[in-house]
Amino acid sequence: MNRSLDWLHQAQADLAQAQLSADGGHHEWACFACHQAAEKALKALHLHLGQQVWGHGLGRSLRDLPPEASASLAVAVPDLEDRLRILDALYIPTRYPDSLPDGAPTDHFGRLQSADAFSHARALVDAIAAALAQP
C-alpha cells in the first residue's frame, strides 16, 4: 500500500502548525515544524516513487531520489539545495537549549527566521504536491 498521500497530507498539516506557532510567537517551534513539513514531503515523494528513505537530513533525502526526480524538483524549486541547508540547520537548535551558547531556543528564533523557514518549506511542499498530482 502506497502511503505517499498520507505523508504529503501530514506535511501540509505541519505547515499549518508552523503558521499557527509563528502567529503565536513560538518561532522556534514554527521553524522546527517547517523542517518536519519538508522532511515528510520528501518522504511522500520517495514513497510515490516506490522507495524508502530514512533519517532526518533533507539534503540526503534529496540526494537519495532518482536523478530525474531530484532534477525535476530542482527546476520547480529555485535554489533547492540551499533552501534544504537552511531548513536542516534548524533541526536541532530549535529544540535543545544545549545546542546554543546560552538561553533556550525560544530566545534565539524570531519572526524573520520562521517566515524564511516557512517560505522554503512551502515551496518544497507545493512542488512535491504538484509532482504527486501528475499521473
Features:
135 residues, mainly alpha, Four Helix Bundle (Hemerythrin (Met), subunit A), elongated
How would you describe the overall organization of this protein?
There is one protein chain. The protein is an all-alpha fold. The protein has a single domain, classed as Nucleotidyltransferases  domain 2 (Four Helix Bundle (Hemerythrin (Met), subunit A)). The protein is 67% helix and 0% strand. The protein has six helices and no strands. Helix 1 runs antiparallel to helix 2 (27-48) and helix 1 (4-23) packs antiparallel against helix 6. The longest helix is centred in the C-terminal third of the chain and has 23 residues, at 111-133. It is elongated, with a radius of gyration of 15 Å. The mean pLDDT is 97.
Count of DSSP E strands? 0
Q: So what's the CATH class? A: Mainly Alpha
In total, the number of domains comes to 1
How far apart are the termini? 17 Å
- Rg (C-alpha, Å): 15 Å
- The coarse silhouette is elongated
Summary, kept brief:
This protein is an all-alpha fold. The protein has one domain (4-133): Nucleotidyltransferases  domain 2 (Four Helix Bundle (Hemerythrin (Met), subunit A)), CATH 1.20.120.330. It has helices at 4-23, 27-48, 58-63, 67-76, 80-88, 111-133.
Topology:
Blueprint: H1 4-23, H2 27-48, H3 58-63, H4 67-76, H5 80-88, H6 111-133
Helix pairs in contact: 1-2, 1-6, 2-6, 5-6
